[in-house]
Amino acid sequence: MRARAILLVLAVVLLAGFAAQNWTEITRPVPLNVAVTTVQAPLGLILLVLLAAAAIVFIGYAGSLRTRHLLESRDHARAMNAQRDLADKAEASRFTDLRQMLDTHMRESRQREATMNAELDKRLGQHHRELRDELQRLTQLMSGRLAQMERHLEPPGPGLDPMRPRPAMPVEDRTVIERRPADEPVMEAPRERERIIEPDPGPGSNPIRRWFGR
After folding, report:
1. Measured over all CA atoms, what is the biggest interatomic distance in the chain, rounded to whole angstroms?
2. How many angstroms from the chain centroid is the CA of residue 11?
3. Distance in Å from the first CA to the final CA of the chain
4. pLDDT tens digit sequence for 48-95
5. Are 26 and 45 in contact (CB under 8 A)?
6. Where is the composition biased (Basic and acidic residues) (predicted)?
7. To the nearest whole number, what is the mean pLDDT of the chain?
8. What is the DSSP string of 101-140?
9. Among the listed residues 190, 194, 187, the one whose alpha carbon sits nearest the alpha carbon of residue 213
10. Are 152 and 164 in contact (CB under 8 A)?
11. Going by DSSP bridges, is the β-strand pair 38-42/29-33 parallel, antiparallel, or unpaired?
12. Would you state the pLDDT for residue 179?
């Protein structure tokens, strides 16, 4: 752009110098034919004026094109800025929506996690209570059975007949005995062996041996 302006200025300067050097010839009147009549006028001056007018028209047209281009560029830049603003707003809106969605998802996840933890704690507490109750029941049952076994195995007190049978165990501790078929012969019970009662050897003796004898 600057080179074209320099060339235009140089052309105008050369034309002005040429006109100044030949100004007398340019302004000298000559007969001119205008199709209907003949007049006396300076031909060089007329051509110079026409050239100047053409240059002015060219410069004005170039200026109008330049101005139009600048206006279009400004409008285009304004439209681009408007589109950029819309895109930025849309992007910000999308980011806002995404953040809200993530916040909602995280909130729901925390709520589900809290609910699951509460349910898990509740079930674990229930299982612990059931296990504790079962252990207490088993402990009581084992304590009762151990006490019954100790009562059955303890030596008879003074004045008690060692041949006298001990009281039977409770019903719940008995072993279920299957009945034999009706057609199966029943074997005769062997005679009860005679038990020999020996004197008490002392407190450290075996209670089972004292009970059954040798």
Report:
1. 184
2. 73
3. 137
4. 899 889 989 988 998 899 999 999 999 999 999 999 999 999 988 898
5. yes
6. 173-198
7. 77
8. HHHHHHHHHHHHHHHHHHHHHHHHHHHHHHHHHHHHHHHH
9. 194
10. no
11. antiparallel
12. 42
CA–CA–CA angle 99, 103, 104 (5° rounding): 120
Q: Say which residues have a Cβ less than 8 Å from residue 143's Cβ, sequence separation at least 6.
A: none
Q: Which two tokens stand for residue 37?
A: 């009549």
- The residues facing 108 across adjacent strands are none
Mention every residue, 6+ apart, whose C-beta is less than 8 A from residue 162: 156, 197, 210, 211
Q: Which two tokens stand for residue 87?
A: 């895109």
> Any residues with CB less than 8 A from the CB of 207 and at least 6 apart, and which?
153, 154, 155
Token pair in block for residue 126: 């229930």
In total, the chain counts a number of residues equal to 214
Note the pLDDT tens digit of each residue in 182-193.
Answer: 444 444 444 444
Which pair of tokens denotes residue 187?
Answer: 């074997």
- Assigned token pair, 142: 């084992």
CA nearest 172: which of 188, 204, 148?
148
Q: Which two tokens stand for residue 147?
A: 């006490």
pLDDT above 90: percentage of residues in the chain: 36
d(CA 194, CA 212): 10
**Position 107, amino acid:** R
